[in-house]
Amino acid sequence: MKPSPHSARSRSADGDENAQGEESIRPPLRVTVFSDFICSWSYLAEAVLREFSLGESAPGQIDLHFRARELYPASTQPSRPVWSDAEWGLISRFAAEAGVGIRKPGWRPFTRKAHEAAVFARDHGLELPFRQAVYALYWMEDADIGRIDLLVGVAGRTGLDPEKLRIALDLDLYAERVEAEGVLGDRLRIPGTPAIFPGTGASAKIILGGHPAVELRRLIRDAIEHGMENE
Fold it and tell me: What are the pLDDT digits (tens) for 137-191?
């Protein structure tokens, strides 16, 4: 389940910039993202957000925190992905705007192990490149990103220790943390993916669903410029 494109909701309006002199330096804006690897809008949103974290034009402006929001938990059965020509045309255009390639996948795998592997990568300081590689594996190669052997291969290509990841996934060492993220999403009543929270506290906004890259960039720049709270 995911909200339709262009949906957004605001929790609060004003933030406090807390400027202290001309040389005041604002810390990076914390941005929390609930997403799933088989959600096309999550793929495109994370590509845009990386620009503000690692990109050449605006690096270090945001501090990204990812949370798993499985569209198909283990108790459910993934449905076959179906898009109308208009829907896929929109997704393809947004992908071009975000600067990423995309191909229409023929199926949806379970993503629990991919999320567990992403937490492993987070603990080793390589979550962003790992997530990018997992998205590409599914959205460019239509691969089963729930398979441990494929995730281990991604680890090797992104600077992680493949054998350590294999052991962690075989033993479900990160399962509880992924489950806790799912519980948090339930508590926040997140209806779909992606759900993006720029800032924290009373001034935090909630950006839901798919947005053109240009619009998402504007929303994130607005949150940065207005100094959304970081508590």
Answer: 999 999 999 999 999 999 999 999 999 999 999 999 999 999 999 999 999 999 9
Q: Which of 97, 102, 85, 110 lies closest to 141 in space, CA to CA? A: 102
Q: Which fold has domain 29-225?
A: Glutaredoxin (3.40.30)
**Considering the entire predicted model, what is its pTM?**
0.85
CA distances from 41 to 6, 36, 139, 169, 177 (A): 11, 9, 11, 26, 24
φ/ψ (deg, to 5) at 34: -95, 120
Q: Which of 115, 96, 107 is nearest to 47 (CA)?
A: 96
* Cα–Cα distance measured from residue 107 to residue 147, given in angstroms and rounded to the nearest whole number: 14
Residue that is written with structure tokens 């959205």 in the block:
139
One-letter amino acid at 198 equals P
Q: Letter for the amino acid at 38?
A: I
Can you list the positions of beta strands (E) in the chain?
Answer: 29-35, 62-68, 195-198, 207-208
Tokens coding 27: 């810390």
DSSP reduced 3-state for 43:
helix
Nearest to 140 by CA among 106, 103, 108: 103
